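Onboarding guide, step 5: your first structure request.
Type a short instruction followed by the sequence, for example:

Predict the 3D structure of this protein.
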Amino acid sequence: MGRPNDDVSGVPCNRTMGHGAMTKPTKPGSRVLLCGYYGEHNLGDDALLATLLALLPPSCPVVATARDQQQVREQFGVATCPRGKPISLLLALVRVRVLVLGGGSLLQDSTSRRSLLYYMALILAARLLGRPVLLWAQGLGPLNACTSRLLVRLSLHLVQGITWRDEQSAAMAAAWGIRAPVGRDPVWSLPRRHNPDLTDGPTAGAICLCWRPTPLLSAAGWRQLENQVINDARRHQAPVYLAPFHAHQDTPLLKVCAVRLQEAGLVCRFWRPRTPWDFMAGLAPVGLVVAMRLHGMILAAMADRPLLALSYDPKVDAAVTAMAIPSINLADPNGLAGLPGAWEQARRWRLSPAHLTRHRQQNRCHQQLLDRFLG
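The system replies with structure tokens like these:
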């Protein structure tokens, strides 16, 4: 597999989270390239990769694209290749049998046009090499530019298998004549694990904040949220734990929030769980989670904790509606007016086992896609 500093590197493939998910062996010599925002120090993308690996056959040889290759190798026990080096990525593609674009919203231009072109080029290269391409549990869009929509529309016709994670993505593709099964976000199907690292988790009754930067909130809006936290923490004599799901994007924002909360006399600590399982297990004593990150919300719901969602995106809206999670729509200019009532409702909210079961059943299409091509 190569030394740790090689372009394609790895460790023995001992994906313990996948045992029992599937028992059919992969075809002899088959190998899969998993492409996504892995190794970005984003707990949500780690959860997507963990779920995808759990649904693959345990014996399936895997290579995952990653920015921080060491983190992905150590955490997941899979070989890696550098996501940002086109030549290395092409060499990895030559060595595999199937390309899987795994979870998230990879086909969008809101992050950058460059990101979209990257995935379009990867799909085209795979097809020129005769490799099947699977879009696994994908979200489609936003696609703001006409050229972006045209490129994606053409690229979807090159793909051999698709499952969508939401109805809006499926409807957009269907309008282009491309119909595929629709599930839910695959992280709802993340298997439980019983060996989390709980050395620095929240204490009893804590308020946990999973916030991210967003242009939808003004300085006054952030202040209103912080004041709500301050009032609630004082009332319940609760410490506040700040959990930056995306280490690079969320930490600067949460550091500013921490200063304001500490100035108000609150006990305020940062919490950086290493894995999605650590996050879920660490939430056990928490009195309230206030989540803006989609996967922070999903993992908190699966941990069955009182939960308030701050929705900045239609994908969050869809999960909120499906699971009846108390929420504030940040895209609504008057949304924060309902914050006190939603906050109290959130403190009483608990997960409906029936809703979770239905979600997992709707996600069977993601497993079936992998079964069809890799089983």
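Each response can be followed by summary notes, for example: The chain has two domains: 16-193+359-374, 207-351.
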